[in-house]
Amino acid sequence: MTQLNRRHFLKLSAGAAAASSLTLPHFAHAGTQKVVIIGGGVGGATAARYLKIADPAVEVILVEPKKTYHTCFMSNEVLSGERKMESISFGYDNIAKMGVKVIHSAAKAIDATKKVVTLVDESSVAYDRLIVSPGIDFKWEDLEGYDAEVAKKIPHAWQAGEQTKTLRKQLEEMKDGGTVIIGVTPPNNSFRCPPGPYERTGLIASYLKHHKPKSKVLVLDAKEKFSKQGLFVAGWKDRYGYGTDNSMIDWVPASKEGKIVAVNAADNTVVAGELEDSHKGDVINIIPPQKAGKIAFIAGLTDKTGWCPVNKKTFESTIHKDIYVIGDASIASKMPKSGYSANSQAKVCAVAVISSLKGTEMVVPSYVNTCYSAIDSDYGISVAAVYRYSDADNMIMPVKGAGGLSPADASAADRKREIGYAHSWFNNVTKDIFG
Amino acid sequence: MKIKAYKYALLLTGSLLLNAPTWATDFQTGMLVNTCAGCHGPDGVSTGPASPTIAGMAEESFVESMLAFKSDERPSTIMGRIARGYTDAEINQMAGYFKTLTFQRAVQPFDADKAKRGKNLHKKHCEKCHIEGGRKDEDGSSILAGQWQAYLEASFEDFQSGGRSMPKKMKKRMKKMVKQGGDTAIEDVIHYYTSQQK
Lengths: 435, 198
What we know:
The complex is a heterodimer of chains A (435) and B (198). With 435 residues, chain A is an alpha/beta fold. Chain A has helices at residues 3-23, 25-28, 42-54, 75-79, 93-97, 162-173, 196-211, 229-240, 294-298, 339-358, 412-434; strands at 34-38, 59-63, 69-70, 89-90, 101-103, 107-111, 116-119, 124-126, 129-132, 136-138, 179-184, 216-221, 249-252, 260-264, 269-272, 277-280, 283-287, 290-292, 308-311, 316-317, 323-325, 330-331, 366-376, 379-390, 395-398, 404-405. Chain A is globular.
């Protein structure tokens, strides 16, 4: 070997050593290791991709009934007419191209002892590790007069797709001078996208302002306060005359009789407050109380809160070994239930699952979340956090001194820039999720 | 035996080189750098329209930017809030990763006439530091060619307003460029940078 070749060789060997520390352990296992993922939403789809990046040798099976997924985030821009449905529609081709086996079916049972998932067609899929990312389900039982059937007429639009289209159509067909009621019925922030109802409020008002200026948005809320309230209220004042006699938006908290107790689909009214006042809406949107997706209950992964307790360093269920729960269905406090949280959690979980399969120590996790909200087409706000795991109390804690809200006194230019960054986030995060 | 080992090493390294560099050989670094993907894109390549691509940033540029964001010395809507969540050591670790990735120039609309004027302005006033038409990140200059238009616009706005400080030389040169190139000078150079898509 010449001098040059020798140096080259040493360099290459070092590279090979680094690579082999990753790739060699696969040879130690008799068969291929299998990770099954239930749910192809933000959490599940991200996990599938990141598992394949982290270890292409692991077999990854993604079980998702829908062929097209619609993101809930940015669906409010579909409601306001700024965005087309197609732009929030995503398929699974790019994930399949990575070598993930995508099964368009639904899971109906999980046997945590035998480590087998049964699908609705009675076929079964065995797993070494299972990731459950079922998203949300609605607590129809908590709201009188509202269920899946009524929701076809009075949409929730809190799972995007047909529901989003229905609500958009109703807004388009509404007469000028009409009232849009947004019923926010979850009693606390334990629901998908806590700032979402208020973004929706502003963007529907934006649509009405330009197309049906005599109309109003009435928000009936079961809570006393809400996410990013100060920034939302300031934006509503700036754009929609909030707080004046001519306000396009009226927000009514629980203490002012805002808590909806019943929905009456027959005459398009809702009943709210202790005095049971009836409110008639030309368009009604109900955001129902929520719980973890159905399969989480069937598999016994939930606790009394209706969500799934996990070890927040790995997202492994504290109830069933080798099953991991991510996204809205998991209890990942203090991360909010958001699409970006699910994306971030999936990355942590993918590394935890691969580490567990390899029998190596899980590294120190790092999590992030940013929630952008649009108040108008050129007015954006955000809240962000970088998180670290706290071993002592199994909590995901925001780093002190970091994150937080957009400044209250931000310039109009910055508000506009935040819209540009919100759209950039959407484009990039969906690429990160669906490839 | 030695030859065999050499071949094996070549095979493994070769396959690593063929693929885009990933974090898969180092989960601890992966944990950190994967938190950037949501806004800056997988592998640091942003799909736009406003968040910049950070792949291929020189270590110096990355660290300097993050520290300036952290202290709010460099204005931002959100980056300061995020940057403060990471230690200086973590920022160094991230910088070491992103420099290994390949910057991919954005495909975006541009005006050919403006780009032509911008090219001349760039040559005269910017090329000395932003070498190769702004394609190379040297001495913390950052890559300008193929960066997203909205991001370049925001950067120029911040430089112009004084919100973001710049080296004395750059300040002088930019002033001169605007004086000689007229009101459209900045727009023109931006179009020159966005016109570079390969």
